[in-house]
């Protein structure tokens, strides 16, 4: 089952307000008659970017190669905005997506080094961090 | 089912009959070779689990050091030898890419990155993604 419409906007949550601000600012980017992408566009393409990263690194084990993929870099660069979607994905499937959060928020890494490689432990730590910092849907 | 594997493993066919688990990101091929189905193993101290400290070593040397420390010896024999378990280390241009563990039948068991586990011949996984077996290791079976 797909996530319960993660892109539905609600001004009742911090994430909803952030998305609404992003979409609001995106409208001005179109006003010059020439379209420029905005942070809100990345939210719309989140799952496409995620699926591309997963499929194009599907048989790879080397973290350096997996994290050099342009889709991974894009996720890190937009992590501030898509963090709640990452957290939602991690709730369903603990995975290498934790590496996106490691790179996006290096000062916040919430697990001890003994957890490295244990995606379930790493994901649970990031989920708890997100819940404590208003970064969930 | 074979379509998505063909590009990476041109020698691999009939994947459905060789598959032994569903896909999971929980562990990877190196972990599976060492019988750990809980963690992602790689000598990368920022990302993954590795059983020994390898600060300053290349990835290739980190593999060599771990095999030695865990009691494995290099062998040129890829066939089944009574009393030994074996691991085949695949590589591309000298760099480790993948590990497979030998089964009693002489077939090998592998986890394909975050994808499925399967039983296979060594030739099945030769290709652009994993290269070819570059070293074999053996270790006496524990009683």
Describe the structure.
Chain A is mainly alpha-helical and 137 residues long. Helix content of chain A is 58%, strand content 0%. Chain A has 8 helices and no strands. In chain A, helix 6 (79-92) packs antiparallel against helix 7 and helix 6 (79-92) packs across helix 8. By secondary structure, chain B is an alpha+beta fold. In chain B, a hairpin with a 5-residue loop joins strand 3 (95-102) and strand 4 (108-111). The N and C termini of chain B lie far apart (39 Å). In chain B, 37% of the residues are buried. The model of chain B has no long low-confidence stretch (mean pLDDT 94). The chains are: A mainly alpha (137), B alpha+beta (143). The interface between A and B is medium-sized, with 21 and 29 residues.
Oligomer: heterodimer
User: How large is the share of residues in beta strands of chain B?
Assistant: 25-35%
Largest sheet of chain B: 6 strands, antiparallel
H and E string of chain B: HHHHEEEEEE
Class from secondary-structure proportions of chain B: alpha+beta
Q: Which ranges of chain B are low-confidence, i.e. pLDDT below 50, for 5 or more consecutive residues? A: none
From the alpha-carbon coordinates, what is the Rg of chain A to the nearest angstrom? 16 Å
Specify Rg of chain B, calculated over alpha carbons.
15 Å
- Biggest interface pair, counts: A-B, 21 and 29 residues
Give the overall silhouette of chain B. Answer: globular
How many strands of chain A?
0
Helix content of chain B: 10-25%
N-to-C terminal Cα separation of chain B, in Å? 39 Å
In whole angstroms, the N-to-C terminal distance of chain A is: 17 Å
Low-confidence stretches of chain A: 1-9, 26-31
SS summary, helix count of chain A: 8
Return the string of H and E elements of chain A.
HHHHHHHH
Keywords summarizing the entry:
heterodimer, A: 137 residues, mainly alpha, 8 helices, 58% helix, globular, disordered N terminus, B: 143 residues, alpha+beta, 4 helices
